[in-house]
Design goal:
297 residues; alpha+beta; ten-stranded antiparallel β-sheet; three-stranded antiparallel β-sheet; 13 strands
Length: 297
């Protein structure tokens, strides 16, 4: 039996999955590598692990213990590489199970994500979304150029553009509800091509987690990137637009320039740039990548 397996699964899966026909649907790569618009999804639930999952874990999983890791809130985890299941919470009032699935790394379809949840805890009812990392991969876009031209109004903390030059830009703090991250994905993949990843890391606060079934039903209605823009105007043209607002000076990065303006001024400049196709929302790119991923179901 021939099954395509993503390199991101741990070695025990890649070496042995061909001999276990009953599990191949969980691990088989059914989408192109990195094509999913979700780089990671964290689920929580109070449902117990199924007997079938425990059998699979005994065959393939790497078991890790986190007793002495202060940043880890669960004492034990079962890892398959792209799917990790955390059990034995360290604190009261925590969900007894946390499940982390990376469909982008695993080459998984949405149906496979659902199949994993059912396999692990029996059903998707009472499974909640805790963290989600929607992302866009833009081929042919230089990462530093993206960092210079990206605008996202939601963050409050001022980013240190110089510190992350040629590396990674973080808009918003790690502790905030949302953080936008821009980085060189080709470098991470050890590729010579140009590939920039724009990733939105969203956390649902305690008590506001969304049920997975609701998330599934509303998947096409939620556009995570509608306020993320790439602005391609020249420096001279930006200077001309800023002339309408006295004493406003262009900064080295468009995000710095936009952040220095009042909400009214930002809205006006963004409208002027959009009318000339010099400010492009990333919402269409996200929708296209989402629809492409869903077509593999």
């Amino acid at each position: 039996m021939s099954v395509a397996i993503s390199k991101a699964w741990i070695s025990s899966v890649k070496q042995n999955i061909h001999g276990f026909q009953q599990y191949h649907n969980l691990f088989e790569r059914k989408t192109p590598y990195q094509s999913s618009p979700f780089d990671g999804i964290h689920f929580v639930t109070d449902k117990p692990l199924t007997a079938d999952f425990l059998i699979l874990a005994a065959l393939f999983a790497r078991v890790n213990y986190h007793y002495l890791q202060p940043n880890q809130h669960y004492m034990k985890s079962y890892s398959f590489g792209c799917v990790r299941v955390f059990v034995n919470p360290k604190h009261r009032n925590m969900h007894i199970i946390k499940i982390v699935i990376n469909p982008s790394q695993g080459g998984l379809t949405l149906q496979q994500v659902i199949d994993w949840l059912v396999f692990i805890v029996g059903r998707t009812t009472d499974v909640w979304m805790k963290v989600i990392h929607p992302k866009i991969d833009v081929a042919g876009l230089d990462t530093l150029e993206c960092i210079r031209s990206i605008w996202w109004p939601t963050y409050r903390k001022k980013p240190d553009y110089e510190r992350f030059k040629d590396q990674t830009l973080y808009l918003g703090s790690r502790e905030s509800k949302q953080q936008l991250v821009v980085y060189d994905k080709a470098k991470h993949m050890k590729s010579d091509s140009l590939l920039t990843r724009i990733e939105l890391r969203h956390k649902y606060e305690k008590g506001s987690e969304i049920a997975f079934d609701d998330f599934h039903q509303q998947l096409l209605l939620k556009n995570w990137f509608k306020e993320v823009y790439l602005i391609s105007a020249t420096e001279d043209f930006i200077d001309e637009l800023l002339d309408q607002f006295k004493n406003k000076v262009r900064k080295p990065y468009i995000g710095q320039t936009m952040k220095s303006l009042s909400p009214y001024q930002r809205k006006k400049i963004l409208s002027q740039l959009s009318a000339l196709n010099l400010a492009v929302s990333m919402s269409n790119e996200y929708t296209n990548q989402l629809l492409r991923w869903l077509s593999f179901n």
